[in-house]
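If you are new to this repository, start here. Below is one unmodified record pulled from the training split, so you can see the exact layout before writing a loader.
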Amino acid sequence: MCGRFARFSSKRELERFFNAHPGAFEIHPNFNVAPTQEIPVILMHEDARHIKKRHWGLVPFWAKDTSIGARMINARVETITSKPAFRAALKQRRCLIPANDFYEWQGKAGSKQPFYFHLPSGDPFAFAGLYEIWDDKEAPTEAGPYKSCTIITTDASDSVKDIHNRMPLILKPESYDEWLDPESKEPGRIEEILKKGSVKELKRYPVSKLVNQVGNNKKECMEPLKDVGSEV
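And here is the target side for that same chain:
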């Protein structure tokens, strides 16, 4: 699964790297992104990429309330075509979820060691994501519709599998356009992107257990531990 990641690239960097129009909101660095938080995502609108905000944890349009989102932070690539929560979004509500790294843990409960995974280049990247818009028409809120997203996960690559058996699906940049295109509804093509259009090679190093606490949104969360060994 993917339960924590970091996104510290600035709004301007995201605009430039993903060739996306900015949203009318601030984007602050988050070194410890946690489920249910609002995060920037990139989606297609009027034939252009736009940066929008979504809560991390997908709430299907048919849900009775938004509480289900906390259990929908990930969508397994093996079952997204059959799960009712994800089927509709996969057809026409696909997005990119920008990140600079993700965290994963190794060991037994109570003593797990967190690791920081990133691209060898150090560049930002994008998880394959799905988004939904939930609107309770019978009990509308002042905040308006609840907009949410989920991160697609897959089997871990060789760079990850000795730490954890799952990893977020990181899309190759050449797959962005077709992934985002709401008109690209051919199941075979989308499934091919999910199978062949992802990044496998990552670098990693152990980090402080500061990242275990959601409230620790600081750069120290991603700094290498000096007494555990060098990057592998």
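Two things worth knowing about this chain: The longest strand covers residues 125-134. The CA atoms of residues 22 and 51 lie 5 Å apart.
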